[in-house]
Structure formats: C-alpha cells, structure tokens
Write a structure and sequence with these properties.
Layout (H helix, E strand, L loop, with lengths): L13 H14 L4 H6 L3 H15 L5 H14 L3 H13 L4 H8 L6 H15 L6 H9 L4 H24 L15
Helix pairs in contact: 3-9, 4-5, 4-6, 4-7, 4-9, 7-8, 7-9
Length: about 180
C-alpha cells in the first residue's frame, strides 16, 4: 500500500482530472506513480514537461528504456523496474537485453556505452571522468545525446526516489529486483 496518497479519479480535483485526462489520452492509462505526483499538480506538470523533452529528443526509445532499466535496478526501485520492463518490451527489448540492462550493460555495443555512462552519472552524482565522456563520443553520441542521457538519468533518479519513498502500488506486471551479491 502506498505511503503517499494515490489520487484517484474520484478524489481528483478539476486540475488533477484535466492532467489525468491528458495522460490517459497519451498512455491509455494513468500509472500509479503519476497519481502520486498528482498530489502536487505543479510537480506533475513539471515531470510531464521533463518527460516530454526526454521522449522527443534524439535518443531512441530502446536506449531510453535501457537506461531506465539500469537505473531502476541500480537504485532498487521495484516499481520503476516493473514499469520499464513492460515499456522496454514494447520498445523491442527482449529478455536477454533487459537482463543485460539491469546488469548495467547491453547486447548492443553503442547502447552499452550509454547505459554504463548513465550508471556512472547516477553512482558518482555527475562526477564522470573525461574518459567516460570521451567513450560516449567515440561510440558516436553527439553532445546533444550526452545531454539527453544526463537528462534521462536525472528524470529516472527522481522517479526512482518517488517510487521508493511512496512505495506506490505496482500497476505493471511485477518484476523482482536482483539482490546484491
């Protein structure tokens, strides 16, 4: 059970209802973590704005999901891991790729660099090395792509924190976190 109120359609005020209608029209559902965000319509609008920028950028959907999966596992957010496993499958990721992403890599060499860079950003709170940045460039990522990976890391860390702090009910097929060795 969520430790922070999950705004339902029945309890939503006019502003929250309008946001839910917009989300429903885009996603076909209103995920529970967005219902938690809706406690502050301004926070939800800010997240949706950031999400819009992240989704319409230069990174392909599969790479965005690879990053989300790696960070959900790294940050121990079962809600986000479950959500991005389902979304990743829709983006074309297979089971072996999802496992590689959860382990911080990818079966695709270029994507593996982006996933590793994303994990390094999160782990070191942005203190990446010149070598890690050069590896992104060497793999073919532009400056725009690098900024977008950084944006995705920030967005995913925020949703990981929200998922963990709220313990929001998982409304995707549940995926269990791997335990640290």
């Amino acid at each position: 059970m969520s430790r922070i109120n999950t705004v339902s359609n029945d309890t939503a005020n006019i502003e929250q209802r309008a946001l839910f209608e917009a989300i429903q029209s885009q996603l076909g559902m209103v995920p529970n973590f967005l219902r938690v965000f809706a406690n502050s319509p301004d926070a939800l609008k800010a997240f949706l704005g950031l999400h819009h920028i992240a989704v319409h950028g230069s990174l392909d959907p599969a790479t965005r999901e690879r990053i989300a999966l790696a960070l959900a596992q790294q940050n121990s957010c079962e809600y986000c891991l479950s959500a991005h496993t389902a979304i990743g499958r829709k983006a074309g990721l297979n089971g072996a790729e999802i496992e590689a992403n959860r382990d911080g890599s990818s079966q695709d060499a270029k994507a593996a660099v982006a996933v590793g860079f994303a994990r390094a950003l999160a782990e070191h709170k942005g203190e990446v090395t010149n070598g890690e940045l050069q590896a992104m460039r060497d793999a073919g990522f532009s400056e725009s792509d690098i900024v977008e990976v950084i944006t995705h890391v920030g967005m995913n860390v925020m949703t990981n924190i929200l998922g963990k702090a709220s313990r929001v009910d998982i409304d995707f097929p549940k995926v269990t976190l791997k335990q640290a060795a």
